[in-house]
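Sharing in case it's useful to others searching the archive later.

Someone asked me privately for the predicted structure of Diaminopimelate decarboxylase, so I'm posting the question and my answer publicly. Question first, with the sequence:
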Amino acid sequence: MENENLLAIANEFGSPVYVYDSSKIISQYDRLSDAFKKVKRLKLNYAVKALSNIAILKLMNSLGAGLDTVSVQEVELGLKAGVKPSNIVFTPNGVSLEEIEEVSALGVQINIDNLSILEQFGTKHPNVPVCIRMNPHVMAGGNSKISVGHIDSKFGISIHQIPHILRIVENTGMRINGIHMHTGSDILDIEVFLRACEILFETAMNFKNLDFIDFGSGFKVPYKLGDIETNIEEFGSKMTKRFNTFCKEYGKELTLGFEPGKFLVSEAGYFLAQVNVIKQTTSTVFAGIDSGFNHFIRPMFYNSHHEIINISNPNGRERFYSVVGYICETDTFATNRRVSEINEGDTIAFKNAGAYCFSMSSNYNSRYRPAEVLWHEGKAHLIRKRETFEDLTRNQVDIDVFSKVAETT
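And my answer, the predicted structure tokens:
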């Protein structure tokens, strides 16, 4: 997207606003598919939690992607977007048996990650095929909050508990049709990923009726010019060779599954905000914008880097700014960041705002969540309206118990 496109969107739909470029999503999907084009059966399930707008889910469905979901609500969003239940995988953590049963009744592929629920579900529903999420005990990921495959993780069933799994399967008569893992996000070292894959291959040999093996995702995308990223092409070449060999060893052509989220939508997203004030202190120049971590929490939550450009003055003299929000707490998007000279009223853009940005937004400080816009084939489409005061109070209940007004003296 060009700066003038972004500025036009900010002017038309107001600020702050999220913008997604569909062409980038499509090219990322094609890139991942091409990396595994020599695999006979490939299934890419988009991780809905990254960005769950129905328009995005419809786009994924049109590309042939399935959905990876973690809540019954995400499943319902997928169904509303027209995705077939058979193309949805449900991979929750710590949810109730009732929620799993509710999703299962919709015809969705169930993925279970703890022994207790596995035994309860298998006892009640032995004829429903189930995938098992394993914990390979591999530390991977760019931040401790997004590393989920290590020994102390709450996710998955330990590979050392395979005998317990087999006992449950035998006692219940349930069918295991898939094996799954997810080691973390922002994985750069493909050798670490491949090592975890070997563990899953070894695990899979314990189950004779598998249809697929899902290796999760977590591929790293670049966050700034010259940034390192997962070499998808190299990984695809190595993984394809190994997976095809494994299928021969297993004696059956299995489906190779991945569940990319950030990889597909991160670089497609822009978060646009207007600069309210330039404030110079004894040591810092602050650019205060009309947003905060209520809209865009990743820099504060993950210490993530998002490139910032002044789209109102992209060619101006560069200066150093600490870009901050309007929340009455530490609310810093960037510290001493070199940006083209910013003036009050300018519009700035945060890049890589497609994944885990709007989906993690809130109404903190009773602020409205922003609008979302999809840039598709050269045209801006509003895909979520900006919230209003009515949205903020819609589910609040006004109780009539404070009728007396205290008198003041």
